[in-house]
Amino acid sequence: MAAPVPPGSIIVADWHRSPESREFFKKILHKKKRREFGLLETPVMPPHLKADTVRYKVFISGKSGVGKTALAARLAGHHIPNLHYETTGLETSVVFWPVKLRENCRVLFFHFQLWDCGENAMRRFDHMLPSCKEQVDAILFLFSFTDHGSFEDISNQMSRITDPSDRVVRFVVGTKFDLFMHTDVTESEITRFQEVWGVPVFRVGGDVSGGFGEIAPLLNALAENLWHQDCVHASSASLPHVCHPEDTSREVIV
Ligand SMILES: Nc1nc2c(ncn2[C@@H]2O[C@H](COP(=O)(O)OP(=O)(O)OP(=O)(O)O)[C@@H](O)[C@H]2O)c(=O)[nH]1
Ligand SMILES: [Mg+2]
């Protein structure tokens, strides 16, 4: 498991705010909303704005009601349900996210396939967890700021689901941060958790304004750490010094 990299060290931070990125972000929008992509679809760029696509599987883990389905909807730009409808099985959704690499100014579309499994379905069916973990590239461990028990459970989940030797990016996401008046989890607990586990903690919550500002920190960090993970793997496999994760098993769609 590679240590997390500082934000902005591999990709251009806040690139989504620059005029240069506009043409790329337009391709993931339709009538000012996020475009829905089919299983085999990718954003198509004109030849002078070439951008490869790299695919990653991301599993969202956490207790029932912490907000796994809401987070998937938030990241994909879908409607976030106000009520808790238990996810009765497994749902996947696709998120495309363009980033610019600092090293060579190359633009890549990250294709995140989000795997969201209802917690009760996970308990009931033994095959769910192995399916979610199979060839997974990143796991988001969720807790809710309004439920201290869900925060306490994160350490157990991380030890149970992952092993330090796994090639997987691990992030913790605290949901319902908008309900901070009712928060059950203190900042010092979060700081201590980050020190002990060496895993970054992100905070999400509230309405999505329609812009990318709210989801950009998490999606950029995912892209950056997944790319770094592939670079570390490529160099340990004695590939050339320059990082070319496409030389590994990572599928790049041109
Ligand atoms: N205020 C607020 N409510 C949220 C947030 N995230 C989720 N919720 C609410 O929390 C409830 C549960 O969210 P879900 O996403 O359905 O929970 P889940 O983790 O998918 O639950 P299971 O499918 O049962 O495992 C819903 O009513 C959501 O609207 C948030 O960030 N802020
Ligand atoms: Mg759900």
From TrEMBL:
Family label: Belongs to the small GTPase superfamily. Rab family.
Taxonomic superkingdom: Eukaryota
Record keywords: Cell projection, Cilium, Cilium biogenesis/degradation, Cytoplasm, Cytoskeleton, Exocytosis, GTP-binding, Nucleotide-binding, Protein transport, Transport
Cited Pfam families: Ras (PF00071)
Protein's recorded name: Ciliogenesis and planar polarity effector 2
Annotated GO MF terms: GTP binding; GTPase activity
Record bears the keyword Transmembrane helix: no
Coiled coil: none
A GO BP annotation: exocytosis
InterPro entries: P-loop_NTPase, RSG1, Small_GTPase
Subcellular location: Cytoplasm, Cytoskeleton, Cilium basal body
Chain segments annotated as transmembrane: none
Species for this entry: Pygocentrus nattereri (Red-bellied piranha)
